[in-house]
Amino acid sequence: MATHCNSPHSHAAKEYVSTWYGDIHQALMAKFANIKLLVCDVDGVFSDGRIYLGNSGEELKAFHTRDGLGVKALITAGIQVAVITGRESAIVENRMRALGVQHIFQGQHNKQQALESIWQATGITSDATASVGDDLPDLPLLQASGLALSVFDGHPQVQQQADYVTQQRGGFGAVRELADIILLSQGLLHQVQESST
After folding, report:
1. pTM, to two decimals
2. Can you name the residues that pair with 37 across neighbouring β-strands?
3. Mean pLDDT estimate for the chain
């Protein structure tokens, strides 16, 4: 069941950790603290999900610089970042390479297979993996990962199966929010100030 940030008044405050995005239960923060790999979908997570097509067939996407800063901060802190997407775009390749993302899988109809190849290459386990998505094709990633995440405007079924739903919408700082929480949980939030987009 998805956990939003606001804590019930009936619970003791000590059971929750205060973050910029609201209070998060300590048990959930412990899951964030264990993360060594953040796996992201692209459309609807790094972007707002809309695809801009020009008259000549060119495709455009908008990326938020706050998300980019979060990704760089994670990588600086030694936490690996991967993107696994069903679509293919040179824009995605260029943006992710610029951010230092090493694991870029595009045109993936079997996203879980791509994830398993990352585990094999890195030695990272499923328990140390967080996956964030926004729609039904992302569910296999969420179900295979130790921490399942949805963006604020994700499909209801994705939100229902997520351990945590962001306060920010996809393409508008959702990845940054997750980066901040992961870094906070591991005592590494200062890495954000030391990064740049």
Report:
1. 0.90
2. 80, 129
3. 91
Confidence check: pLDDT of 81 > 70: yes
Distance CA 178, CA 115 (A): 19
What is the Cα–Cα distance from 144 to 130, expressed in whole angstroms? 9
Residue 101, token pair as written in the block: 């993302």
Q: How far is CA 58 from CA 25, 54, 91, 95, in A?
A: 44, 5, 10, 16
128 backbone φψ class: left, alpha, beta (φ>0; ψ -120 to 50): alpha
| Model confidence pLDDT, tens digit, residues 99-152 | 999 999 999 989 999 999 999 999 999 999 999 999 999 999 999 999 999 999
- Give dist(CA 154, CA 165) in Å, integer: 8
Burial, 196: exposed, middle or buried (Cβ in 10 Å; 0-12, 13-18, 19+)? exposed
What tens digit of pLDDT does each residue of 137-191 get?
Answer: 999 999 999 999 999 999 999 999 999 999 999 999 999 999 999 999 999 988 7
- Give the separation between CA 21 and CA 90, rounded to whole angstroms: 33
The dihedral formed by the CA atoms of 50, 55, 58 and 63, expressed in degrees to the nearest 10: -30
53 three-class SS: strand
40 has which bridge partners?
83, 132
Contact in structure between 32 and 163 (CB atoms under 8 Å): no
